[in-house]
């Protein structure tokens, strides 16, 4: 299991394969979990979710950005997506990776790009979530978030429960909107829990701490054990349903997504789209080895 996960994490970081994948279109089963390569195809998926009482957080996929030109192009794509959300009247917000808009190029350049995005989103009353990446980018991501929170209230980020520092980060962001996840990257034992049991225990611990803080919380998991525990906790502690939502990835456990929405829980689906789908898809295969069957079936059907 560990070797399989490491293998797909390594593939996700392969820039040559990522570049090639842009020419393939959505192959290897990716069309099951990526909502198209352009705004129109993605919007069709978002409208279908909305019709079932489910919101969307949209990710215009992009990785391996090491030049200002690439970062500026990504920023324009994000601004175009924001405009499409506004014009088409869908229930959606956006999730953005800072490396996509220049964090690996220049910190101040990235901050200015992010400020422009958050400002545009504020005009449309759209929330911007800063996706958390690997540990090497974590502190810079937090620094940029805290800078933006001095000016805007429509921006938040992700807390990864496999990191030892996450409880302290919760304390420092009590009023911000946050998404809680287990974590999708491979980190060393010096900074993160390594066993599933420890990660799950800390995830539930952080959720309980967070639900008693003032900020809105997105609980992102496909784990029905965690979901059941959250339901029990909010019921016993009389936590209003308007204070939190559940989130899952596009294409995963779709029946459960609809069931939770039908039960009256706020629900949002993470909707990735774009030509730069390869790294995202490899990380999904790394997280859930059973997803490999989906890829194999797709290849055979071709």
Describe this structure in words.
With 302 residues, the chain is an alpha/beta fold. It has one domain: Alpha-Beta Barrel (TIM Barrel), CATH 3.20.20. Helices cover 49% and strands 14% of the residues. The protein has helices spanning 2-12, 15-24, 39-51, 68-88, 107-123, 138-149, 166-172, 196-210, 224-236, 254-262, 278-287, 291-301, and strands at residues 55-60, 92-97, 128-131, 155-160, 178-181, 217-220, 244-249, 267-273. The chain has an eight-stranded parallel barrel with strand order 1-2-3-4-5-6-7-8, surrounded by seven helices. β6, α9 and β7 form a beta-alpha-beta unit. The longest helix is centred in the N-terminal third of the chain and has 21 residues, at 68-88. It is globular. It catalyses: L-proline + a quinone = (S)-1-pyrroline-5-carboxylate + a quinol + H(+). Pathway: Amino-acid degradation; L-proline degradation into L-glutamate; L-glutamate from L-proline: step 1/2.
Features:
302 residues; TIM Barrel; Proline_oxidase; eight-stranded parallel barrel; nucleotide binding; Proline_DH_dom; oxidoreductase
List unreliable stretches of 5+ residues: 298-302
CATH architecture annotation name: Alpha-Beta Barrel
Most strands sheet:
8 strands, parallel, barrel
Q: Could you tell me the radius of gyration in angstroms?
A: 18 Å
Q: Which series of helices and strands comes N to C?
A: HHHEHEHEHEHEHEHEHEHH
Strand content: 5-15%
Number of structural domains: 1
Helix content: 40-55%
**Mean pLDDT over the full residue set:** 88
DSSP summary, beta strand count: 8
Number of helices: 12
Q: What structural category arises from helix and sheet content?
A: alpha/beta
- The CATH topology corresponds to TIM Barrel
**First CA to last CA: what distance?**
27 Å
Taken from the alpha-carbon principal axes, the silhouette is globular
Strand order of the largest sheet: 1-2-3-4-5-6-7-8
């Amino acid at each position: 299991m560990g070797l399989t996960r490491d293998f797909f994490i390594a593939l996700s970081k392969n820039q040559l394969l990522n570049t090639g994948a842009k020419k393939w279109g959505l192959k290897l089963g990716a069309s099951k979990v990526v909502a198209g390569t352009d705004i129109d195809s993605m919007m069709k998926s978002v409208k279908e979710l909305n019709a079932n009482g489910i919101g969307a957080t949209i990710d215009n996929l992009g990785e391996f950005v090491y030049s200002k030109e690439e970062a500026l192009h990504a920023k324009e794509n994000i601004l175009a997506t924001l405009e499409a959300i506004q014009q088409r009247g869908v229930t959606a917000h956006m999730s953005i990776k800072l490396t996509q808009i220049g964090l690996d190029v220049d910190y101040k350049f990235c901050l200015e790009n992010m400020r422009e995005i958050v400002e545009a989103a504020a005009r449309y009353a759209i929330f911007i979530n800063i996706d958390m990446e690997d540990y090497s980018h974590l502190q810079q991501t937090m620094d940029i978030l805290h800078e933006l929170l001095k000016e805007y209230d429509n921006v938040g980020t992700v807390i990864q429960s496999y990191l030892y520092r996450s409880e302290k980060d919760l304390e420092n962001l009590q009023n911000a909107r946050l998404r809680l996840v287990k974590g999708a990257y491979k980190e060393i034992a010096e900074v993160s829990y390594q066993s599933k049991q420890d990660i799950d225990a800390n995830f539930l611990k952080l959720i309980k701490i967070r639900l008693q803080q003032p900020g809105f919380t997105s609980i992102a998991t496909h784990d029905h054990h965690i979901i059941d525990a959250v339901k029990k906790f909010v019921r016993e502690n009389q936590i209003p349903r308007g204070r939190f939502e559940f989130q899952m990835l596009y294409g995963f456990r779709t029946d459960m997504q609809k069931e939770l929405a039908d039960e009256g829980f706020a629900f949002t689906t993470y909707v990735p789209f774009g030509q730069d789908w390869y790294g995202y898809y490899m990380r999904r295969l790394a997280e859930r080895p059973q997803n490999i069957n989906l890829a194999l079936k797709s290849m055979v059907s071709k």
